[in-house]
Design a protein that fits this description.
The protein is mostly beta strands and about 450 residues long. The protein contains five helices and 28 strands. The strands form six sheets. Strands 1, 2, 21, 22, 24 and 25 form a six-stranded antiparallel beta sheet that branches. Helix 1 runs antiparallel to helix 3.
């Protein structure tokens, strides 16, 4: 058996938060995009006010509010950010993902953020009622509501000392922070479980179960299904073109089919559940969903088969709690499957499943392979972005495709006006006469995280 070469690559690879798999021999070739759900491109910060980050090094004023995203295939999303010290890259691409694949997975207050989203703007769009409930004195505008909500989220997502500039926004932030209660993570808009199956030709491979909150899902067979004879069937052996939550589907593979891997696609139109995380592979700040129009969501599942030898079904997902990538291997054959990963050998017994976590460096692209008998190989690539960036670590924050901004030295009481997480930047007056111009898209964030924690 060949030895595995596993490591991280510091290359300009744009993974868009995706775990991509490609293999040879029994593994087949193909790519997968995240875990399923919505894929979107950030349009920018649309409804916002101002906030101040306070620290021993000085104060910094930033924009705080709602982003908008355009969904691939149709639809719009509204999001707040959950990583105050990381800028949003221009036109960054995002994928819906589980909390476990982001900093929220290891944050014991993630459920409180979910509560804030469900009990504030834009989910609560009656601003007079929201102001009355929160005890806000004076008129609460959309900008105030967005800023106050973002500030309350930052206090839990980044454990940062931050206040809204507008009094009404600050009163709302205090109310939301004080009253937030843990709520469970919302389910994905659409996934296929498991994302990979395997077996011998001449039978049914699966089942793959549809998980969705959509009323109906369109199921598309592999592109060459008509000529290859491959069919997608339900539990009763009938061809499947549509499905609902809980539908089990199978790949029917002709007996004379040569060893290969194929993929089916499920797609639906639905609103994405509030509280779902959105991650990017371009080191663009993680977002959390605050609102959704009817949007296109999709998911894929693959089937691999061969006439002889072990036929594993292999997939991967980011595991931020462990700081790595989980490689999940299911052996649906009657022979043990042995493979090498990260320099060690593992065996999955017939009918068994095994998960191996590969440690991956934070904020680094990775590219590693799994190798097994009979020429089996499957690669996984992506980038791990599991921790919120601490202020004052790693130097100045700047866009990946632009020049490093000129640092501005501020003292206690000074205010550094910089836009956190925007798609464009403009000159801002700092203090009495300091001007910062950011070229290339996003703005400089210079701040330090507060020294003391907050009680829940």
């Amino acid at each position: 058996m060949r030895r595995l070469t596993a490591g991280t690559l510091v290359a300009g690879f744009a993974a868009a938060g995706v775990l991509a798999g490609a293999g040879t021999a029994a593994a087949g070739d193909g790519t997968t995009r995240g875990e399923g759900g919505a894929a979107a491109t950030v349009d920018g910060l649309k409804t916002y006010g101002e906030a101040v980050i306070r620290s021993a090094a000085g104060n910094q004023q930033v924009s705080a509010g709602l982003f908008e995203m355009s969904v691939e295939g149709g639809g719009m999303l509204q999001t707040y950010c959950v990583d105050i010290h990381t800028p949003t890259q221009t036109d960054a691409e995002y994928d819906e993902t589980a909390w476990s694949g982001t900093s929220l997975g290891a944050n014991e207050d993630a459920g409180r953020i979910h509560w804030i989203l469900r009990n504030s703007y834009p989910q609560v769009n009656d601003l007079a009622a929201l102001a009355d409930r929160a005890g806000v004195r004076g008129e609460l505008t959309e900008q105030d509501a967005a800023a106050g909500t973002q500030v309350a989220i930052w206090r839990y997502s980044d454990d940062v000392d931050v206040d809204a500039v507008d009094p009404q926004a600050e009163q709302l932030a205090d109310y939301l922070e004080k009253n937030a209660r843990n709520q469970p993570e919302p389910k994905a808009s659409l996934t296929l479980d498991p994302p990979a199956v395997s077996g011998r030709p001449g039978g049914l491979l699966g089942p793959v179960t549809v998980r969705t909150d959509a009323g109906s899902v369109t199921v598309s067979p592999p592109a060459d299904a008509t000529t290859s004879g491959i069919r997608i069937l339900d539990a009763d052996g009938l061809p499947v073109t549509t499905a609902v939550d809980g539908t089990r589907v199978f790949f029917e593979i002709p007996e004379d089919a040569q060893a290969d891997t194929v993929q089916l696609t499920a797609q639906a139109s639905t609103t994405v559940p509030v509280g779902r995380a959105f991650a990017s592979g371009s080191r663009s700040q993680t977002q959390i969903l605050a609102g959704s129009s009817t949007s296109t969501v999709s998911a894929t599942a693959s089937a691999t088969w061969a006439e002889q030898g072990a036929i594993p079904a292999m997939s991967a997902r980011k595991n931020c709690a462990e700081g790595g990538v989980d490689v999940i291997t299911a052996n649906q054959d009657d022979e043990p499957f042995t493979f090498e990963l990260a320099g060690r050998e593992y065996t999955v017994e017939p009918g068994g499943t095994r998960t191996v976590t590969v440690p991956v460096a934070e904020d680094r692209t990775y590219d590693f392979a799994v190798q097994g008998a009979d020429g089996f190989e499957k690669r996984f690539t992506g980038m791990l972005d599991c921790r919120t960036k601490a202020a004052g670590t790693g130097g100045d924050v700047h866009t990946l495709n632009g020049p490093t901004p000129t640092p501005v030295v501020v003292g206690p009481g000074d205010v550094n006006l910089a836009e956190t997480g925007t798609t464009g930047a403009a000159p801002w007056i700092v203090g009495t006469a300091i001007t910062l111009v950011v070229l290339g898209g996003t703005a400089l964030v210079v701040a330090r995280q507060r020294d003391t924690g907050r009680g829940n």
